[in-house]
Amino acid sequence: MLEQYSIPVDYTRPRTKVTVVGCGRWGSFLAWYAAELGHNVTLCGRRGSISYEKLAMTRKNEYVTLPRSVALSDDFARAVGSANVVLVSVPSQSFRDVMAELSANCDLKKKYIVTCMKGIEITTGKRLSEVALEFGLEEWQIAVWVGPGHVQEFVVGNPNCMLIDGYDRTTVGRIVEWFKSPLIRFYYGTDIIGTEIGAATKNVMGIVAGGLDGMNLSSLKGALMARGSREVARLIDKLGGNPMSAYGLCHLGDYETTLFSKFSHNRTWGEEYVAGKKFKLLAEGVHTARAVALIADRLGVDMPITSAVNTMILEHVPPRTVMEQLFDRSLKDDLV
How far apart are the first and last CA of the chain? Predict the structure, then answer.
């Protein structure tokens, strides 16, 4: 691991109590990052999980080394109960279970819940903020943190821009003030529907990009970017969001880190898939392709790329056949 970057101290920054739920790549980074900003931080994980136990024993993983100021806990009720802000970074399909546990054991009425992962619930087709609302939270309590950036780049000091969105403008501004820095510059989102859909679906495009890399067809990524953002804009519009969000940081602006980076799990999953290998790490785009394909079918939205990925995975159609059929499609058909 390269030497970790140190964020310059900002004595004007408001401090708060932060609990991060989830000890994976992004969760451990968020704990490190929040501590670097001077917040009082607890990182919460499940006893017995490999990720949590490794951090508990060594205070480091392959991504970050946690400062001593970060408390580690496997007691969700205590860790979340003492926080003002809860950053949740767990697999999207596990979010409902986490919210059920938190709402059953903690008083969440005065806390901010920030979802820091990208996905759509398969069983309901709901965005993660919609799932959170089912557990009695008010809209002002919920924010989403999305946008480009890999932990491996951030921890060595390579900056990027990200996006905070939510139902309440005041909440968005408060989250930005707590977490902005020279390392991460935040933009203020104004379309939570578009932001969540755009962020989730960019992972589907990452799978296709990896497939193209694996078949030595990387030159088609330009067409993928143009057509991918277009079909996602159609879905956002149908769901009541702003279709222009597909061309912002939540989606098109995140393509560099998702479609090209060696650190992208979704791109790597696609590359390994076409090679007949199994990628062992989490690739949210696999579940998102299925969830979004179901939504698109229900709403009558034409999403050929997403449907192709879903068909390739579920029906085991050869990847090259899928790609050839996809890119033989008329450009005119995709622009109407």
Answer: 48
pLDDT one-digit tens code per residue, 133-155:
999 999 999 999 999 999 999 99
Q: Which residues contact 308 (CB under 8 A, 6 or more apart)?
A: 208, 322, 323, 325, 326
- Best CA proximity match to 304, nearest among 239, 238, 247, 224: 224
Residue 287 CA, chain-centre distance (Å), reads 13
202 is catalytic: yes
Cα 232 to Cα 105, 256, 302, 314: the distances in Å are 37, 17, 9, 21
What burial class does residue 162 get, using C-beta atoms within 10 Å of its C-beta: 0-12 exposed, 13-18 middle, 19+ buried?
A: buried
User: How far is the C-alpha of 201 from the C-alpha of 196, rounded, in Å?
Assistant: 9
Count how many residues are written for the chain.
Answer: 336
Catalytic-role residue among 180, 202, 278, 332: 202
Residue 245 token pair: 């969000």
Is the pTM of the predicted complex or chain greater than 0.85?
Answer: yes
| CA atoms of 212 and 277, how far apart (whole Å) | 15
